[in-house]
Write a structure and sequence with these properties.
This protein has 123 residues and is α+β, with helices and mostly antiparallel strands. The protein contains three helices and three strands.
């Protein structure tokens, strides 16, 4: 037995299909996916550059002072910013690969003069 839809049933079915399509289109419009609401909006993303790290470099460097360096800088970068080591800098007392922190004091010690005297006398 073949069943077919009556005219009334077909109208009701078409009405619900149209209603569902209209509802979907309204939702897409509200979401900004279609229509005038979908115009591209200017997206302004502000990528802030990290603030510089300020360190006080003093001791056996050529230009002791406060320096601003990039975040992630190391002690050697601070020493280079300060003009490099003096002739009496004790480089062996430092870990030049260590990272610096904001507000850090970096003191570069000098080789003690008593060590110089004993090395010169024995040599």
């Amino acid at each position: 037995m073949e069943r077919s839809l009556t005219r009334t049933h077909k109208i009701i079915l078409v009405f619900f299909v149209v209603l569902m399509l209209a509802g979907g289109l309204i939702r897409l419009y509200q979401a900004g996916i279609i229509g005038s609401a979908s115009k591209k909006k200017d997206i302004n993303i502000n990528y802030k550059e990290p603030a510089p790290v300020r360190v006080h470099v003093k001791g056996a460097v050529l230009k002791p002072d406060v320096y601003s360096l990039k975040p992630g800088s190391r002690w050697i970068d601070a020493v280079e910013a300060a003009g490099g080591f003096t002739a009496y800098a004790d480089k062996s007392a430092l870990n030049l690969a260590d990272f610096i922190r904001d507000g850090q004091e970096i003191y570069i010690p000098e080789i003690s003069k008593t060590n110089d005297l004993t090395e010169n006398k024995s040599g």
